[in-house]
Amino acid sequence: MAVAVCLPMTYGMDMTLGLGLLLGLYVGGISGGLVPAILLNIPGTPASITTTFDGYPMTQQGRGEIALKTSIVASLFGGMFSATVLYFFAPTLADIAIKFSYIEKFLIILFALSVIASLSKSLLMGAFSGVLGIWISLIGAYDISVGGNGETRLMLPFMEGYLENGFSLLPVLIGVFGLAAILEDAEKGLKSGLVDKSISLAGSSRFSIGVFRGQIANLIRSSGIGTFVGMLPGIGGSAASVLAYTQTKNFSKDPSKLGQGATEGVISSESANNGLTGGALIPLLSLGIPGDSTTAVLIAAFTLQGIQVGPLFIGENMGTWHTMVIALVIANIAMFFVMFFAIKHIVKVVLVPKHILYPIIVMMCVVGAYTINHGVMFDVWTLLLAGVFGWAARKVGIEIAPLIIGFILGKSAEVYFVKSLESFDDPLIFFTKSPIAVGLWVLIFASLVFSIYSSAKGRSRVK
Amino acid sequence: MGILVFGLSGCSKNDAINENLRIVIGSKSIGGDTYQNSTIIARALAEKLGINVKIDAIGSSDSLKTLSRVSDGSVIMIFHDQAYLGYLYGVNGYRDIFKDFSVGPAIAKNPGNAYLVPKGSPYRTLEDLMTACGEGSRIRVAIQPGGVSEIGFSALKNAIRILYPGQEKNLVAVNTGSSSAKNQLLFDGQVDVIHGSVQGNEQYTRLPAEDQKAMRFIWLTARNETFARTNPEGIGTTTREELLSFVEPNASVPLEGGGNFTFDKEYFFIYNKRMSPTIVAQLDQALSEIFEEGKVQETQLQSFFIPNFMASTEAKIYFEAKRDQNESIIKSLENENAAPGEGMIDFSQSHLFFPRIIQGILLGLGVLIGVRALLSLMRSPKTDKTAYAFFQKNYDKLRFYGTLSLTVIYFLAMDFVGSFFPNRGLGFLLMSTPFMLSLSFLYARDLNQKKTIEIVINSLIMPGIVWFLLTTVFNVTLP
């Protein structure tokens, strides 16, 4: 949203300055999402959802500073990794990206959904929650802008005026995480502060670079996953961080610690979602295809400056190309310094009394919900509905993370699935299209088997 | 009293252009041509009239809803031919803009509407394509259904119907979404032709034939005299002369009764029908002067748009005639379009295909969960009824229901108060302070003087800071 809001400012600017501003906002926006995710359990962006799994427990344990600083260093690594990959391999990777048709993209989404269920307390409930999230995402019209027929579904006729566009992602996300948590706390009577004890800057609560010992493989793997997913248009940051997080859990020496405040969890999530930034620029600068909704705004910036994006962009605009890569690197470094050294002040948010903090959170949620679609009041009501739903859902055992991931990926899953069938008219094509599709099925199958095995092992241990 | 003062000072007069004008556009994309074009005109209007103008890309459905609610001229809309084509194609959310709204002045044309084939395609011209269909070959065309993308396809299909009656069924639409989706279908060999644009696809036409991504133009739908007004340099390294070889009459799509189909994508204003004629005249006058000055045309041309100002009255007549011409093409294919499509998914019912699968899976999982819960209950039934209670024991009813009530009142009041001060964010500003005060006092325990002062200061300052930053610095719309 920051990129979209500041785009008009770039019209009167020099190309270099304009691109620098937009890239800085892009990197800052992705990175900034970790702050509310860790301190308040409200993901600032969909890609920060998995950061809440370990980041918020760390805050509750009085290790909020460690969580924040670790995440910022991981974000820096992810961003620099993807910038390096972008610079040296963009054209080659773009040619690989176009080998992923709708079928392969559907299978990646299916893979992400299968792994998110495995992160849940109950596999069955996790799967149910994920599918429920998909179902909710389908409410509304099957939009013509994605090749649909424009017809509405999953609603009563009198709802059409309100639900034609379905529920927007951001109001649902902040409602289910933010407002629901406030309702839950209000139900309990707001008897305690945000953390059980004060943040201590001494001893074990202090950050040290030693937290990264043994995490190099995690950093590289997660950054790689983020970069790879970023270069496939239409998959998104949440899938990247989910896939990276589950791989971290699979490779972890002690998987049971993930979700309880493990630093490797926040390292994985944040390096993956910042790895997305360079990855999403690969299809933009090598094919003229935006990797995500934010890079789509960059196309407008180019066009307004009279620059055409497409497969020949890099070759015909070497100066602008180098400027962009340098700007991306500087943005990551600036993000690091700005955030890292401000942490000792930012972390004090948890000391703010709830009777002051919660009204501010609600007000900011309203601002976010209203402005995300440039002024639609229904999105504000969606925020409230999602908040009540999130509060109630936890009580009946619905798992919120799989629900939200299902919601985020549901519409894309539908488009890729249905359009693949319309093109090929053969359901078996999902298995036979390409070696990539076969490989993805192997991963999906392995993931499901592993999840069932882990779940069964966990139950027998409890007995 | 403060609200009254605010109201008097901020109240819009219904016969003058609002000093905070909101332009909603029919597209949701900030990277797209509608947003770019609208921004160029909005900046010129803001400078000319000395007012604050902001663009909100909320999409066609929300734009038309917003426009139909606001008649004081504080909200106007910019869109292109999709505004009436969507209605002609029967797309949900579109309305008859000529009946339910007023058509305002036209501002520009986009001559870039194009159709492309792979560079190695056996179809080198439109004639090749139409002949192939006539001889029974199935040609698949990737389009976005229901508008600008489809009208060229409809015209081509109609032309095949004229030249090879009964064979128009061989030209089939593959309904898809964005430009990247269409490009991907071409890369994969899933379609033979795609709808694209000169601006978005020209670089692909310069790739070597052996490159999987290489494309070739086959038809540019713009009128010859429109295209002749583009920059001679063309776009990229493809000159205007080279591009004109794909424009009528060099690429012809015959119409019933003679002549060839052409289509310029044109941008125009849409107003609330009850908006004051004085405001309509003021906008016409301002735009006329802007175009007379000549500066805005340079910016439009730089972005490959053709400047094209038409005042409201003239524009209305022009677009009604254009609508009628396109309507006759669409109607001539009604029988073909109404026939159920081939393949396992009927496009007209495709909106239900995936939801049904999901509902089936949800039901299955729900049954499994229910059975498991039942078995667990049977094995070890809970005698304590509070185990089944939805709310916690002794939950704080005041704070819980108070939070819900205050939030509902806040949202309702914000929207209501904001309607008196359009596009200024005052609904948010005026209602956030009492909301934050109320919620803070509801949550605070052991209230003392210090806490009270903190709450009051926070409630006064925070909304003000947020309002100032967003509305004044970043020009963001608030309630």
Largest interface: A-B, 105 and 120 residues
Helix-strand pattern of chain A: HHHHHHHEEHHHHHHHHHHHHH
Structural class of chain A: mainly alpha
Gyration radius from CA atoms of chain A, angstroms: 22 Å
Average pLDDT metric of chain B: 89
Helix and strand pattern of chain B: HEHEHEHHEEHEHEHEHEHHEHHEHHHHHH
Q: Report the major sheet of chain B.
A: 6 strands, mixed
Largest sheet of chain A, described in full? 2 strands, antiparallel
Helix content of chain B: 40-55%
Structure explained in plain terms:
- The complex is a heterodimer of chains A (463) and B (479).
- By secondary structure, chain A is mainly alpha-helical.
- Chain A has helices at 2-6, 15-32, 34-40, 49-60, 64-97, 102-118, 123-137, 160-163, 169-188, 216-230, 237-251, 263-287, 293-304, 313-316, 318-346, 354-371, 377-395, 400-424, 429-432, 435-462, and strands spanning 140-141, 152-153.
- In chain A, α4 (49-60) packs antiparallel against α5 (64-97) and α6 (102-118) crosses α7 (123-137).
- The longest helix of chain A is centred in the N-terminal third of the chain and has 34 residues, at 64-97.
- The radius of gyration of chain A is 22 Å and the shape is globular.
- Residues 197-204 of chain A have low confidence and may be disordered.
- Chain B has 19 helices and 11 strands.
- In chain B, α6 (126-134) packs across α7 (148-163), α17 (397-418) runs antiparallel to α18 and α18 (426-443) packs antiparallel against α19 (449-473).
- Chain B starts with a helix and ends in a 6-residue tail after the last helix.
- The model of chain B is unreliable at 1-12 (pLDDT under 50).
- Chains A and B meet through α1, α7, β2, α9 and α13 of A and α2, α3, α8, α9 and α16 of B.
